[in-house]
Amino acid sequence: MLEVEMHSPSFRTTRSASAKRARSPDNVSERPAKRLSLAIDSPLSAAEHSFHYFATGPPSSASTSRHSSEDWVRQANGLSIDSPLFPSVNSYVQGVDSSVDEGMVVDEEVHMGVISRRPYLPPLHTESDTLMQSPVPAPAQQPPTSRPSATYITTPSGGSNSLSLPAINVLPATPELLSRTRPSTPVNSDRDHSSTMNISPTNSFAVPGSPASRKHRFMMGPRANCENIPICPNNSLQKIMSTTLPLFWDLSSVSKKQRIDASVKLIGALEQFQAQFVPKDERSEDEGEDDDMPVDSIDKFNVQDVSYSIRRLIRGLASPRESSRLGFAVALTELLSRLDTVNCSQIMALVNDATKSQGSMTGQEERDVLFARLFGLTAIIQSGLIVRTKPLPFSASSETSASSLANFQEAITTLVALGEKKSWLRESAWWSLSLAIDALNTSDVQWKVPAFDATIQCIFNENIPWSPEKVAITLKLQNMLPDQEWRKLLSPAFKSSDLLANANLQILGRILKENATEDDAENGLPKLAAGSWKPQLHFVWGIILDQLLPAPGVPVFTKGSFQEFFRVVIDETLFSSTSSQERKYSGFQVFQKALPRVTEDNLPMLFTKNFMRSWINHLSHNDRYLHKVARQVATDIQDLAQTRPQIGFALILQLTGVHGSQQFDQLTKSKTIEAILASMNPEGIKAYITHLVSLINPLTESEEPDMQAINSRRAWVIDQLSALIRNVGIPKADDWVMSILDWLVLNGLFVVKKKSEKSPFIGLRKISTPPFSDILRDQCRNRLLSCLAELTHQTRSLTLDEDRTIKCPGIASDDEFWISKVIGSVERLKEDTKRVALLVEADEVDSSLQAKVNETVAKLRQVSGPQREAAKGAELLVSGMLLQYYAAPESDIDTSTLEDCVDASIRMFFSTKKKGKKSQKAAEDSTDPPPEPIDIMVDTIIGFLEKSTSYMRNLGNQVFFLLSSSVQASTVDLVLTQLERRDPAELAQDNDDSEEEDYGDEDGSHSDSDSDSSENLDDGSSDGEVDPELRRKIAEALRVNGADAASQDEDGDDDASEEELMDDEQMLAVDDQLAQIFRMRENASKSRNVDTQREATHFKNRVLDLVDTFLKNQPSSALVIRVLLPLVELSSISNADERQLADKAKGVLKRIAKSKDIPSNPDVEEVKLALTELHTRARKLHSSELLATLSQCSLYVARILIESGAQDAVATAYRDSLQDFMTRKNSALNNNFFLDAIRRHPSTIWALRNDILSLSGAAVNGYRKSQCLQLLQPLVTHTSPTENGKEIIDFMLSLRQALIQSLTDASEGKNSLTAAQVKDLLRLASFGVNFTQRIASAAEMRTAWDFDAWEVMGRKLGDSERFKSSIGLRKTCQKLATSQVATPSSKRKADTSGDISQSKKKKKTVT
């Protein structure tokens, strides 16, 4: 709250409501200049606001004219303004001196729980004393607002002249109008407090001795709608409020953007106001002012808006509300940086006055004023005012400098004192001090040297102990003043004049850790209290890193080593084993701050021993205290690798080096190394490959090789090399990918005898010592195949001819298969017999086969034209099989399978048309024709799918992708055969056939003298063969119980002799053990069946992938029809183990049904059979999901038949299904099955319209009957009236007859239609009538719908016992009966003009 005089260059007195406004002078020059204002708010109507004017008498003539700005006080005629929040009746005080200004009420020393008093400051004494004595009527009471306000308590008339205030907290930082106040006026109370204040809108200021004469005060504070005050023309007060005051609220917003926007608008407005300001002439000013009224130079040389804003912003710094302190500080800094009419002394005086501490302040209030002083000084420093050299354009004295040495000394002294007064302010105060030093260093002030001397004298005072803040300032000063006597200043705490020298690191580490010991107190080091740590990193670390890791070309004072500093101060201090979690957290922050500054050369200095240990420990487990910051460190490292790919290799070396772990990602459960590899450039990848290969041999030759460590390291290298290829995030380059494949080939298939430093194979440049073990060679072969599987899965664009381009899998950038490249490397190494040798030498047969494969591959590469795609598939197949033969000579792929594929490739692409006599004769003699070449290849691919290696499976899928264009009917049948269901027991029996044969050969036949238990050991064995393991267990059970099976009489003793060996107790014990053995056998059999079934399901999933590949590549093939029914059979599986397989089959069927392509030349009879079978299955499958899938497939097949001209077959299939739906109660069909057909093929289903009517009469119940008839509405809707208009009209007659018959039967109780179903039928009739009206004439309407029949129908329904209560049914019939009076539309197109004219005449007649 405040009491304000009106200081405005242009002010007009108020008048009564009935007074008219005087006309403006005709001469425009007589009008005062208008103030500039910003359109920052939408214009508001004056009627929306309440602004009180109080006049003390009839307006004089002067009050209705305009006057110059110099005479505005006299023309004000004693006007005062009250706050909208306090519409109390005020009056003027007579005989009070006007030379004294009043400040804000909140400037008084008001504290919680204390009522402060001060002498009352009388208001301005004007010339119209007699007018001021007139009473003023009380204004209308305004509704209270939500803003807090204070209650003012007046003293009795006989008391002292003082104003009593209640116990309140400081008000929030809000726009408050500031009058011209003396510099000595206390302004420290403009602070915000959080406690609630008592609000009394009826109280006001009291003037002793004159209760009825009160002066209105403009009370401003935390109030509502301060920006909504009405704007009064030519009123400076209102212009301030309408332009700048609303912006102060937004300065306190929690939104950073809103605060900045408010600051920009505020500063912009103030700049425009200041640009229009013209200082008053000193002589005229002296004449117009009293001697007792000093004028502040800020008000004298600045427009009132600016002077008010400066004071308001300074006072707002003490506000704790939301983000007031931040917003006000930013605005104040920017304002001071743009003003050249104020000096540092003035602003510092305002700051000191506004932030005075009082003894009665609470802790919160004291903190507020301390922060306000800190922010005020920081604003002065950051605005540059503290070292400004530009002289003031106007000055009340001879001194025109904006800053001085005294101001600088006062600022640094105050900042140091703030830091010493409160430990929690030390860092912030010294940070501001560092800003002042930086500003001084970059300035050109004349007093720079004395200022530096004063700074050093202030900082290196014996009463100021060493702290991180002092270290930061010292480092700055050392860099700015290298010639200073630093050894003298730093002693005895430090040994060297260079603060970052190695000799000072121990004591520096304790200072930065803020944990100095008592012994250090003698050297001036502080003994800090516990709990001084805070999560924000101290600003000293940025200064230290700037010194130790400077930017290129930046000179620094220190000669210290970053490596030594990081080891001593960070690794051995913050990351020591005895450090707390808080210190380690600070250490991680220092690492994050230093990471972007390092180069590739000094990067290893960061990854020290203790740091890596702490980082890995906290990164490995998510329940660790510092897990989040450890993960953030890993993220920062990955981001650094992305922004600087050249540093990725150095990062990996550190993570997997001495202090890291080769299994870093596995150990930390992260993907740090994988992400770094994905960010590296090709040069970095090559360097990493070279580094990995160099780790193959022992690191030191002098020591005795540890084979276990060497093999472990080699296994890790093999995994890392293969991971580079298998990581899909790493961009592949042919050169380094091929170098890895060659290295795996060399160490997996060959033995190196002699090195070659110039060899293109990196594995030949240095011999591995000791040689690779068999386990490592096997690992190399497996990783080779897994890498090729990953490369084969990747696709590239391959141009087959000028008009065709496909996505070919497994090719390099030169369009050659990766597998072919590897085989080429194998062939080149085989030729280099001096340096390498194969692990397994091939015999003559194998050598000839390999030569034949290479020859065939060379021929396949020459194939062009339509067969080129299939030729690429054959090439990939035989090459992949040959490489598998190299990598696993003892695998399941034998030479016969490879020979068959080679022969099939030759027959498929290179067979001659003319055959010799011998070949013709052989063909005639053979009863079975040879299988098709494509069938042989696909059969081989199916065999690949049974393998457990990803290489074989991926190879088979990609080969089939390329061969899909050559697939024939026999090939499709071969694939679909694999999807047939088989009994798990049969599958298990097939798997055990070979084993049972072996057992039978070993055991032979069994004699009939076996015991009963032995005869029934295996019921499934028709030959009486027994499992040897089972025999052994039974024999062991007999032996334990005293009946050794081996002791049986081999010479033919009878059964009696055997029975004598065991008594009853032994027999019971044997029975229990035999029962346990049989249970174990039964469980094992079940488990084997389950495993077999699971393997069969996985195999079918892979085969289904082949089917999906064929359908995607050949959607227009006629063989697609063959696939439908097997997939339907597969999708109907209800077994839980095969649910995934069934869902996958459903997905394939849905993709077929949604395909835009259909077979081009289908076999119509085959398609008809498929449609019939689909409908047959749909009638029996009680699954809504599967029925919807079958419906989509049926529509797909129907589209094929319609395109082929076989619409009748489609109509027949749906007619039979509709008959099943109507006549069979257990039918699985539903109404949607037919609705889908109507929407998709309405013209074909239109032929079933009469069948629908006839079958509705044969419905099994009323529900089916209603559903059947409901099909007619969408059927008629989707039928074109222009093409089938006559048929529709004729059909409407049949529809009406069917509906009448159904309703009649319902009314007579002959069918089971319910009232709801009858209502549906009547709704269908209404639809038919409306539809017929649009296309038929009146005569045709009467013929088709016989409106009299509906009248009769309505009476029947009303007389019916079942429907007489349903009044709506009778009314619907009546409505249908009166439909004949409706005017039909003229949209019908008749065949002849005569019909058209006749129709028009009938329409007119009806009308």
UniProtKB/TrEMBL annotation:
Protein source organism: Favolaschia claudopus
Domain of life assignment: Eukaryota
Acidic residues biased stretches: 989-1002, 1010-1027, 1047-1064
InterPro entries linked to this entry: DNA_pol_V/MYBBP1A
Assigned GO CC terms: nucleolus
Protein name: DNA polymerase phi-domain-containing protein
GO terms (BP aspect): regulation of DNA-templated transcription
Keywords of this entry: Nucleus
Main subcellular localisation: nucleus
GO MF, one example: rDNA binding
Compartments, as annotated in UniProt: Nucleus
Polar residues bias spans: 195-205
Alphabetical list of Pfam families matching this protein: DNA_pol_phi (PF04931)
Chain intervals with Pro residues compositional bias: 136-146
Species classification: Eukaryota, Fungi, Dikarya, Basidiomycota, Agaricomycotina
Annotated stretches, region: Disordered: 1-35, 124-149, 178-213, 983-1064, 1377-1407
Record keyword Nucleus present: yes
